[in-house]
Amino acid sequence: MVIPLGGGDLGPPPMPGPPPAELLPRFRKIKISLMMLILSIAAKLGAGIPLFPKNVFGQIYNVFSAVLLVIIGIFLLKDDRTFSGTYRCLVKTFCGSCEDTCAASAGVQCLCSWFFCCTIAAVFGLLPVNGSDITVVIAGFTLLGDPSKDSKTQWGLEVRSTAWTVALSVFTAATLVGLLAEIYGAYQGMKGFSELGELQAGGLMGGPMGGGDWSDEGRSTSDPYAGGGGNRLGGGRGGGGGGGPGAAGQNQPTTGAAPPRQGGFQPFAGQGQRLGS
Fold this sequence. Notes:
Layout: H1 24-51, H2 56-62, H3 64-76, H4 84-92, H5 99-105, H6 111-125, H7 133-145, H8 162-201, H9 272-276
């Protein structure tokens, strides 16, 4: 399965560097949901394997979508001090053959993939299909309420024993925490993606042809030549190029407003007589 990272038509254009300051509160909340998701995976496996020792593969399969979300979250939070080391490890090992591509697709661009995958995982996690975590929780609490209730679930521990009750409680708590983390993460990712679009539309970040120069605080990047005037294009002093009025010995002003442009660009205007003299 391919990890759905950012880029393309689903996400914003490539944006190197950390997220803008306006999105940092959202990223902190996404970090909380990611840490909750990691804890829920560890607790769910720790309690689920003793409950179903003959179905270890099924328990690993049930947390596969959550593991995928964790990987997307690590790529999303690649600039966070907590997950930056893990991100570099993933890029250097599992993504070694496509390191440059993965590095270019990480960061803010993963916002769309994050909230979309969190939403899908939360919806399917609430469906009581056969073998899902929610069916295990329902079956366990049904037996707690009515021990005589016939259950098709094959438990690895004695039903209603202390070990079984503790393992079921931990499994239930981990399932609920995982669902809450997915819902919370989907909401924060959606809001962050919406705010990112507003920042781009307002010209506070790099446009679709740029990358968002977030390190230049206080300077608008909507104009690629902002702050340089016409000098970058050869205007101003020495930018008129041979044969203008300034080349005949007239000094051009070095301060104040630049003289207005006279019409369009005429490469041979006023030059014929000089060439003939």
